[in-house]
């Protein structure tokens, strides 16, 4: 059977757009088939010189050499190889991919399955082979992520956009301040009139009303679109002034500001700029979290190191899982309890230890199934968890 490739566009309501895909994946009939689940990170750095493709090739090569793959029959192995080839063929042309920070792809030739969905983020590029699809990260994306609201404004113009991983859409409700008249009198060109002081006072009042209208519109959009954050774009002096007009609750959701001319802004340009602002905000937030993590370790409300973190995961204690970027290495899963461990001896009394190709990938999947938050610590963060893994705790 030749499957039809289905790419699901991401709407402003991410959960509503991904829900049909999750429903289809969870209703797949059980059987001896093997399903390829692939998550690809598409950050700007990953797109440079197609680095994401190199990472994907490494994951596919490791999957092809996995003992679980070599144990398949020749017919099943060839079917999986064709699925992997389709996944690679779909992802190798960067120009045809959605403008998202991540992508999830699921393939199974026997079931006629090939689905792709853009995601707001992917923790790390990975490819897995199992009799069921790995959808924990997909479910977490639909549950947690919301669009970003952006306003592009200057002293006279305001435009509003909502941004999803796949692009930006301009919203109705933009407005322009009515034009002023003459230099010192609005209705008599440059004839003598009220004087320069009143003129500049009137300009200040117009600006303040303009900022107040933008703030009111952002509050309306915040009620209609439960956004993950707000980006303010425009001349520096105007974005700084607008920030002072926002209510505290809305100001707390501002991810950052950027320079942009509202008259020449396009949805694609706004999307690129807002994503950059959001990533810078995320990096700053991770750096602050790492400092707080060290304090939590000292008080017993966090653990670090592979063994301690995996033990917390097995108990359902993990609230936030921290994984060093690029962490690699295998481990084992105890057959009786399903617990992830670093060495075979850690499974004493818990059943046969089954090899795990990539311990970090399975730890991320387990954390997402427990509705724990996952944070990938970048290499340039300045601090990182001991041995690459750490977690804050829900209880001690």
Which features does this protein show?
396 residues; alpha+beta; Translation, Eukaryotic Peptide Chain Release Factor Subunit 1, Chain A; Nucleotidyltransferase, domain 5; 60s Ribosomal Protein L30, Chain: A; 3 domains; 5-stranded mixed sheet; 40% helix; disordered N terminus
Report the C-alpha radius of gyration, rounded: 26 Å
Give me the count of strands.
Answer: 17
Q: Beta fraction of the residues?
A: 15-25%
Biggest sheet character: 5 strands, mixed
- The arrangement of helices and strands along the chain is EHEHHHHEEEHEEEHEHHEHEHEEEEHEE
SSE blueprint and pairings:
Layout: E1 6-7, H1 14-26, E2 35-41, H2 44-47, H3 51-64, H4 67-70, H5 74-91, E3 102-108, E4 113-119, E5 126-130, H6 136-144, E6 148-153, E7 157-164, E8 167-176, H7 196-224, E9 229-233, H8 236-245, H9 248-251, E10 254-258, H10 267-299, E11 302-304, H11 306-314, E12 318-324, E13 331-334, E14 340-341, E15 353-356, H12 359-369, E16 373-377, E17 389-393
Parallel strand pairs: 1-4, 6-9, 9-10, 12-16
Antiparallel strand pairs: 2-3, 2-5, 3-4, 6-7, 7-8, 11-17, 12-17, 13-14, 13-15
Description:
This protein has 396 residues and is α+β, with helices and mostly antiparallel strands. The protein folds into 3 domains: 6-144, eRF1 domain 1 (Translation, Eukaryotic Peptide Chain Release Factor Subunit 1, Chain A, 2-Layer Sandwich); 148-283, 2-Layer Sandwich (Nucleotidyltransferase, domain 5); 300-393, Ribosomal protein L30/S12 (60s Ribosomal Protein L30, Chain: A). The protein has helices spanning 14-26, 44-47, 51-64, 67-70, 74-91, 136-144, 196-224, 236-245, 248-251, 267-299, 306-314, 359-369, and strands at residues 6-7, 35-41, 102-108, 113-119, 126-130, 148-153, 157-164, 167-176, 229-233, 254-258, 302-304, 318-324, 331-334, 340-341, 353-356, 373-377, 389-393. It has a 5-stranded mixed beta sheet, covered by helices on one side. Strands 8-7-6-9-10 form a 5-stranded mixed beta sheet, sandwiched between helices. It has a 4-stranded mixed beta sheet with strand order 11-17-12-16, with helices on both faces. Helix 1 (14-26) packs antiparallel against helix 6 and helix 6 (136-144) crosses helix 12 (359-369).
């Amino acid at each position: 059977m030749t499957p039809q490739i289905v790419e699901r566009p991401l709407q402003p309501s991410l959960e509503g757009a991904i829900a049909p895909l999750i429903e289809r994946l969870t209703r797949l009939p059980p059987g001896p088939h093997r399903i390829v689940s692939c998550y690809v990170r598409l950050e700007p750095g990953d797109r440079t010189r197609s680095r994401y493709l190199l990472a994907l090739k490494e994951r596919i090569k490791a999957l092809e050499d996995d003992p679980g793959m070599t144990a398949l029959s020749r017919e099943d192995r060839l079917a999986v190889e064709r699925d992997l080839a389709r996944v690679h063929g779909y992802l190798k042309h960067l120009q045809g991919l959605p403008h998202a920070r991540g992508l999830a792809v699921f393939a199974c030739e026997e079931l006629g399955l090939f689905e792709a969905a853009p995601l707001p983020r992917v923790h790390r590029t990975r490819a897995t082979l199992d009799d069921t699809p790995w959808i924990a990260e997909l479910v977490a994306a639909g549950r947690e992520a919301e669009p970003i609201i952006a306003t592009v404004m200057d002293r006279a113009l305001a435009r509003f956009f909502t941004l999803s991983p796949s692009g930006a859409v301009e919203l109705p409700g933009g407005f322009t301040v009515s034009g002023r008249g003459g230099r010192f009198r609005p209705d008599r060109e440059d004839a003598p009139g009220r004087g320069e002081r009143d003129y500049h006072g009137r300009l200040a009042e117009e600006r303040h009303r303009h900022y107040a209208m933008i703030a009111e519109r952002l509050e309306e959009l915040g009620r209609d679109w439960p956004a993950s954050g707000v980006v303010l774009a425009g001349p520096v002096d105007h974005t700084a002034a607008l920030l002072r007009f926002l209510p505290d609750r809305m100001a707390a959701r501002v991810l950052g500001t950027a320079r942009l001319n509202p008259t020449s802004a396009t949805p694609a340009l706004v999307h690129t700029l807002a994503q950059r602002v959001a990533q810078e905000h995320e990096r700053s937030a991770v750096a602050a979290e790492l400092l707080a993590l060290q304090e939590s370790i000292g008080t017993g409300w966090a653990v670090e190191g592979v063994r301690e973190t995996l033990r917390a995961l097995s108990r359902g204690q993990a609230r936030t899982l921290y994984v060093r970027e690029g962490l690699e290495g295998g481990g084992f899963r105890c057959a009786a309890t399903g617990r992830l461990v670093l060495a075979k001896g850690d499974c004493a009394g818990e059943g046969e230890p089954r090899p795990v190709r990539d311990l970090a990938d399975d730890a991320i999947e387990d954390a997402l199934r427990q509705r724990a938050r996952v944070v990938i610590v970048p290499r340039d963060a300045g601090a990182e968890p001991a041995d690459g893994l750490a977690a804050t705790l829900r209880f001690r």
